[in-house]
Structures are given as structure tokens and as C-alpha cells.
Write the C-alpha cells for this entry.
Amino acid sequence: MTWLETLRTAYDALRTRRLRSALTMLGILIGIAAVMLTVGLGQGAQKQVTDQINKLGSNLLIVTPGSSTSASGVRGGRGSATTLTMDDAAMLADPGVAPDIARVAPVSGGSLSLVAGTTTWTSNVVATTPDWLAVRARTVSLGRFFTADELASESPVVVLGTTTVTQLLGGAAAVGQTITIGGQNVTVIGVLNTEGSTTGGDQDDLVIMPQSTYAARLSTSANPRSVSTIYIEAKDSTSLSAAYQEATNALLSAHGVTLTSQDFTVSSQQALVDTATSTTRILTVLLSSIAAISLLVGGIGVMNIMLVSVTERIREIGLRKALGATPRIILRQFLVEASLLGLVGGLAGLGLGMLGGVILPRVVNFPVAISPVAAAAGLGVSLIIGITAGVYPASRAARLAPIEALRSE
Amino acid sequence: MTLQPFVPQPLTPDALLELRSVSKTYASGSLEVAAVRGVDLVVHQGDYVAIMGPSGSGKSTLMHIIGCLDVPTSGSYWLAGVDVAGMGESDLAVVRNQRIGFVFQQFNLLATMSAWRNVELPLIYAGVPRAERRRRAVEALTRVGLADRVDHRPGELSGGQQQRVSVARALVTEPDLILADEPTGNLDSTSTADVLELFAELNAQGRTIVLITHEHDVAEAARRMVVMRDGRLDEPMGARR
């Protein structure tokens, strides 16, 4: 008996019991769809986080004050200390000190209130250098960014994010306007491109100004030259770890500290991605396990139905054996029936999962990424479940003695 | 009952099936029940034999052994020159498929399949291609007078017609032996006469038939009758008719 005949016989048997077969497949269908969707959600979330982190700029290293592994073993509040200065930034920008570093952007600042006419708006002031634009991979959509000359001359100029413009100035043309920050009049010379929200907050609610201007007129810090973060852009992705080493060594010697008493932290984008990834992965694994349990229940359903089917069809099995079906053929027939239940259920589940992957993001505004690998794996798993669930019922059918089977009523 | 040592017996020339000292015992709890006790039987090619006996006489067990659905506890059984007494289940399935056509009391048709799909079943297991199966199934149905019922399901046929479908199924593989187990047990007198006439025709065409029944009238239709009593055979008619 060929496999095609076996398949045809199995198909006939399942078609004869349409409702029962459909209900049995439903268990597998729901299980596969649930697994596909949870894995898809997890991967979607991961992709979203990774994209957001990548938006920060390419080949980025971030230096923050305070050590993540302090000598006492207590994690210091990151960014709470003021151990980084403009001098550190200048040193890192020196190609003689760190040849693999392309650009450096020190950032200080804080939350300040802005006034334009009668409107007041509190925004995040970023005091930095002209390289910030390139390091953070931003562009200016209107006007221009401030220059090195304006940085040197402590010019009262600012570049605004689009959210800040909308909130503070409404629809009015921003470039050329004069606004007040902390009692100081500054001129708007440009508007940044729109970036959208990331895990770090609204990336468009910003006021960018020269660091010197901020230090001279607005800073409340004891050391106006201190900065809260230094962004470093490596020459390219291959020199990222070299840049990491250079930055760490330069800062260690400049601060006169060792690795154990380190008063700063250099973190890479990859570290951020890894942290975010491990978080979403735990969530994905958790959700998928729940979904996998529903798949297991579906598999038990297939086994249950196959057992019922064998009991119900004892006479048919006896007849087939009398007519020349070997135990092997009977075993194969029931195995193929069970596999077919699993496979068709899995296919339908795949369809439902993909449909959900299209509909869900529109309803809950959350990305779902269904990969072909996950789809193929889902199909494989449903087939394996079918076969596994079929083994015991099929071997029972194969072992039936023909005379016992024929005799039963 | 002790196990007899296996001694290869010379075959009776021209015998389609030959049973020598065939016994079958069942363990029923701690008791051993002997259903068949040392049966010798020779059926020649083209013969038409009725095995008669009351219920409990062991004729069903003997039928199972002749039909290769069961194996004897001791003794030898040659079917078409092949010793089948010691065969395993898979080999027996092949022997049943190739050499024996069954007709059952309960018809044993699959209710969800049309007449021709029921008839083609043994051909599926014989590995015959689909187109030829259909051709041969229709041919067999035509032979039993059901050419116009090919696509009918068993539920749409009368009892006599259903039994004729199962005769067609027994014929379709061109077996050496047609083994009918109480084929008229579920039929009215008209259908019984019908089926017996069909058997007579088939026998006249050279088919070997072994028929098991407890009805004397039915057994009379055969050319030769043997009676089973308490697990033993005796032949009241003596010679073949």
C-alpha cells in the first residue's frame, strides 16, 4: 500500500467524521495561533526597542558619571555625581588620545521653563557642542544648528524640538523668535527633525543650546564645566570596542583612578540593546509557555479522539485486517490520520496567527513580527504533536487480533 | 493437550487446503478449552464444502484457522502448497489478501463508502493501481448482478444486495478459496436462495468454496458436507457428491 493510498484512506476517515475532526483540530489551531502570536509580539517588542536604541545614533558609546560597580559593591546612582567635565570631552575628542573616536558630544543641562509671550512650557535643556547633531544622528529641518564660533562666544541661541515649538509657539514661525529661558533671552535659530517617542521619553521636546552659554548664564552647578553625559561616536562599528578601551583608559588616567575605583561608566548601545532584549525575552518565554500549554492540551485532544476512533472502528480494523492489511499498514493509517489532524490544525493555526499578526497591531498599536522560521517551526511542532499523539492509539489498532475485532459488536 | 512435534507431511496431490491433526485450545482462566481437537480435512481445487455444526461445536474456530485469521495450537495446515500453520501475523495478512475471499454473516461493509469502494478494499492492500481497482470492482459487481448499484452505499441496498456486494469483494482478488461464514444467517429466504445460487454458479465456474453454516438446508446446497461436533469432524455423506 502506497503512502498516497494511506493518505487518501486517512483523509476519507477524517472527512467522514467532519465535525469531530474539526473540533479536534481546533485545539491545535488555537495552540499554534497563540504560540505564533506571543512569539510574534515578543519579537515585535524586541525589534521596536532595538530600533529605538539604534535611533540614538550609530556606533555610540555613552559615558556617565558614577560607577556601576563601585568599590563598596553598591551601585552608585548613575549620573548623580559630577565627575565628568568639558575637559574630559575635549581630551576624548583628541585623535592623539583616542584615534578610534570620531566625534564627542558632552551634554549637560536639565529641566527649565521657557516663556514666549504669555505661554510657558517646561522643557529639557540640552547644553552641548555642535557635534551633538551628528553624534545623535539628528538633522535640522528648519534654520540651522549652532556653530563652533557661537559655542566659543557663548551666543544666546537655541535649536528647538518640534514638540517644544508646537507647545511654546503654536503655529507661528519659530526661527528668528526670541524666547526666555530662566530669565535669559535667547534666539531660536533652528528646529530639529521629528524623531518620535522612545523609551527615553519624547525626543522632540528639547531645547539645544551651546554648552558655554548654558554654563555662563543658566547653570546652577558648583562646577559649570561639569557635564552629565558624554556621547562618543566611534569611527565605525568595527572600531567600537577599540574606542571603548581608549575612552576608558584615557578617563582612568585623567581622573587618576583604577578600574576598581572607577568614577564613570562607559556603556555601549549593544549593552542597552542586550538589557532590553533580555527583558522582552523573559516576557516572551513566559507568554509562550502559557501558549505552549494550550498546544499540549490540543495534542492530548488529538490522542483522545484517536483512541475513541480506534475503539469505535474495531470492526473496520478487523475487516481491513481480514482483507489483507498488515499490522504495519494499520499502524501507518492511524498515524497518518493523527498527523493529518495535527498538520491541518497547525496550518489553520498558522493562518489565524498571521491574520492576528496583521489585525492586532492596528487594534493595540503594538508591533507583531511573525518570522518565517517561527511559522515553519509551528507547523513542524503541530505535525510532531499529531504523530506523537497518534503513536499509542495506532499501535493499539495495529495490535488488535483480527478475530477479536471482527467479533466485537 | 500436549504439543505435537512438527512432522512435515506429504501433501495430498491436488489439494487446495489440507489440515492434519489441527487443534486449537484457548486458555479460559485456569481452564484450557479445546475448541478444535485433531481435525483432518482435505479440500480439493474446485470443491464446494459445507462445514455444518451446532453453535459451540468449534466450527467458527475452524473457520478462523482455515481463513488464516488464527493459527492452530498444533497440527499442520497447507494452503495452496504453503505451510501457513506457523506464519506470523504480517505473512498471514498477505496470504489472506492473495488467496482467500471472505463472506461474513454481518456483511462487514463500510457504511460510509459506496459499493465499488467497498469492493476495491482488498485490491488497495494488494497494491493494485486506482484505475484498475475501479475497473475490477465494477467487473466483480457486474458479475454478482449489481452493475447498476456501483455507487450506492450499503445503507441504500437491501440485505441480499449487501451480501452480494460482499461476495463481489471476495471475488475481486480472484482468490483460490472463497470462505463464507454463515453467509445467509442475516438473510430472508429469497435472498438466501439468491446467494446460494450465486455460490453454485461460482463453483460451476471452478471456484473453490468453503461454507460454514448451522442450517441443514444451506449445507445441502454444497457438493460435500462435513459435520463438526465437539471439536471433531466427521463426514456423514462419506464421498463427494
